Amino acid sequence: MSADPDCLFCKIIAGEIPGDFVHRGERTVAFRDINPQAPVHILVVPRGHQPNAAATAADDAAAFADIAATARAVAAAEGYDDYRLVFNTGAGAGQTVFHTHGHVLAGRSMDEHLA
């Protein structure tokens, strides 16, 4: 799997920067967001570096499926069957770390605007 030495999430995956991990799998990891937008806000990240969800879906559909499966598992482990899974793709959509990641959000009404 590829890694980018300048990527924040690659550094977290490698253990160079600490993360509050809730899942470590063969293809994905999941850790709590440091700026949560809901009571449960977990990032699901593929171990291989791709810049965004569109690139991962195009280059490695199995990795994209693993992100969705991991999201379901971590939401359930937190006690939620209902959750939101959000991907920001590109700076104009709010992506700030350019390594594919899904935001698992749960624990509040998703009818509210996300900040």
TrEMBL record:
Highest rank taxon of the organism:
Bacteria
Which InterPro entries is this protein grouped with?
Answer: Histidine_triad_HIT, HIT-like, HIT-like_sf
What Gene3D superfamilies is this protein classified in? HIT-like
Please give the SUPFAM superfamilies that the UniProt record associates with this protein: HIT-like
What positions does the record give for the motif labelled Histidine triad motif? 99-103
Q: Which residues form the active site?
A: H101
Name any one GO molecular function.
Answer: catalytic activity
Stretches assigned to the HIT domain: 8-114
- What is this protein's name? HIT domain-containing protein
